[in-house]
Amino acid sequence: MELILDLKKRYTYADYLTWMDEVRRELIEGFIKLFPAPRPVHAKISYNITWNLGAILKKNKGKCEVYYAPFDVRLPKNGETAYDKIYTVVQPDICVICDLSKIDERGCCGAPDMIIEIISPSTGKRDLNEKFALYEESGVKEYWVVYPDSKAITVFLLQDDGKYDAGIVYEFEGQVPIHIFDGCTIDLHDIFP
Questions:
Q1: Which end of the chain is more exposed for a tag (fewer CB within 10 A), N or C?
Q2: Is the pTM of this model over 0.85?
C-alpha cells in the first residue's frame, strides 16, 4: 500500500515514526522535505570524510562518535523531547556527536557538535538556507558545506552570540581544520575523489 502524505500539513516526529516506507524525507518545522538518493560523487565524498573523521577519533581516543545518513537527528525546541512535540528531524550527510547522552535507539536528540552537508542540485538551497538557519538556531558548533563540483568546503563556526561567522572557504589543496577537535585537520586531497 502506497503511503500518501499531505506536503502542506504539519507533522510531528511521532507521525514520522509511522511512515514505514523507503522514501528519504526530513521534517523541518513540521513540514516534509523529500530528497532523492545521492549521486555517486556525493556518496564517495561522504565516505571519505566519514572515514577520515573516524580515523581521527580512533587515533586520539576521542569520546565523540561520527554518524552518516540515513541517521535521524531530532532538533527539539524549548527542551521538549516528547515525540509528538518535536517538529524537526533531519538526516545530515555526516554528524559528530560528543555528548553521547544525546544518542538513543532512534538516533540523536539535540544538536550534534558538527554537521556536514554535501551540496547536490536537489538539496543545495535547503542546505544553504533552511538548514543553515536551523543548525545555527539549534546550536551546532561547526557546520561544513561541501561543494563536490568545485571541490571546496565552507566552514561556519558558531560564535558566542549564537550566530555563525561569515565562513571560511577551503579549496584546491591544503588542510581543513576541524575546530571541535583542537589541532586536527583533514587534507582536501583525502576528501575529493
A1: N
A2: yes
